[in-house]
Amino acid sequence: MREPELREIGARVSGALHRLFPVAAVFLLLIVGGETLHAAVKVLRVDPRQTDAAIEEVRGPHLAVYDPQVPSAHRLLVFLPGTRARPEGGLAIDSAFARWGYRAVSLDYENGVIAVACAHSLESSCFDHYREAIVTGAPVSQKISVNAENSILNRLEKLLLYLVKTDPAGGWDEFVEAARPAWNRILIAGHSQGSGHAAYIGKTFAVDRVLMFSGPQDYLDDLHEPAPWQSEPSATPFSRYFAFLNENDPFNVHHQIANCAALMGVEEPKTLMVEPGEEIRGSYQILINSETVGPHGSTLLPKFEEVWKYMAGADTEVSTLRPERPSQPPATPAH
Questions:
Q1: What is the dihedral of CA 100, 42, 196, 300, to 10 degrees?
Q2: Beta bridge partners of 220
Q3: What values do phi and psi take at 24, rounded to 5?
Q4: N or C, which end of the chain has less CB nearby within 10 Å?
Q5: CA dist., res. 160 & res. 179, Å (int)
Q6: CATH superfamily assigned to domain 48-313
Q7: Strand pairing report for 271-273 and 241-246
Q8: Residue 55 near residue 333 (C-beta atoms within 8 A)
Q9: CA 198, 191, 167: angle at the middle one, nearest 5?
Q10: Model's pTM, two decimal places?
């Protein structure tokens, strides 16, 4: 393909992504076949149907991202986008982690039913069954039906096996053991709906860390409590759950903090208000920003890379900063 044609295609796709996913669009400059090149970062787009004929494509191809010129951190970031979001929306955070030596994937999965569909349920297990159905494919939810082949777990497993086979230079075999994900080397992350799935997986498997962005939303409004599954025993240590929230989030940051507290096994978690580019010192599991434009998506803005890096394992010292919490609860959106 000639260079002018490549530029035209890149401009069209970048423009479309900018309208749909302004965070990700800044990284999409050039497409060559099934790969995107941005500086040294290598981006593979994988049709889910290529990994398993029984898997359907929901929103678009999976992303697999790494920088072959950076020494490996021997860790894999698995990112789960929010409701009706495409994996492409995770390109910014995937690319950042790739520059830090991680392998990263953003997964296409059945994310069409919003998590707050259970918010007004009087059945305390509603959120639990919703998460179990999407993560495992078990036929347990009245809100959504997902078969085992299209579950998050099967999609991730088949993607990793596909990458091991088709991109041996990528070092993906490090994240597979006995044909299953090597969970102890995986940071499971998600935005909005995806944050709850990440936490649910952290409950089930001993992952390296759980990174939650703008969620979870698993709060039972009419029962005035976090969904009970969040307080159940966890395979991942409580200290390895981290959240990045926004004080103006329309899904109610106070409910999100309550959910995170349950997941972290504490009544009053330490929180810290953060600003873009600010170095974070101390030991915090919940970090909060105050962006007012697009607050729910603000946690994925590249200007907060320092927060992402901290959550992924930056050094934690004894803090001299004063923990802060949002002062006014925002209104919960209509469900």
A1: 70
A2: 225
A3: -75, -30
A4: N
A5: 9
A6: Alpha/Beta hydrolase fold, catalytic domain (3.40.50.1820)
A7: unpaired
A8: no
A9: 70
A10: 0.84
pLDDT in tens, 44-96: 999 999 999 999 999 999 999 999 999 999 999 999 999 999 999 999 999 99
Residues of the chain with pLDDT under 50: 1-38, 314-335
Q: What's CA 61's distance to the chain center, in Å?
A: 16
How many whole angstroms separate alpha carbon 180 and alpha carbon 154? Answer: 9
List C-alpha distances in Å: 104 to 33, 65, 138, 189: 20, 5, 27, 10
**For the chain, what is the largest distance between any 2 Cα atoms, rounded to a whole number of angstroms?**
61
CB neighbours of residue 237 within 10 Å: 14
Q: Helices in the chain by DSSP H: which ranges?
A: 3-20, 22-25, 48-51, 91-99, 126-136, 152-166, 193-204, 253-264, 305-313
Q: Where are the domains of the chain?
A: 48-313
Q: Which residue in 136, 142, 127 sits closest to 226, CA to CA?
A: 127
* Both tokens assigned to 89: 């929306």
| Three-class secondary structure assignment of 85-100 | CCHHHHHHHHHHHHHC
- Tokens 């209509």 belong to residue: 334
Measured CA to CA, the distance from residue 313 to residue 34 in angstroms comes to 32
For 132, residues 6+ apart whose C-beta sits below 8 A from its C-beta are: 138, 140, 141, 200
Cis before 216? omega within 30: yes
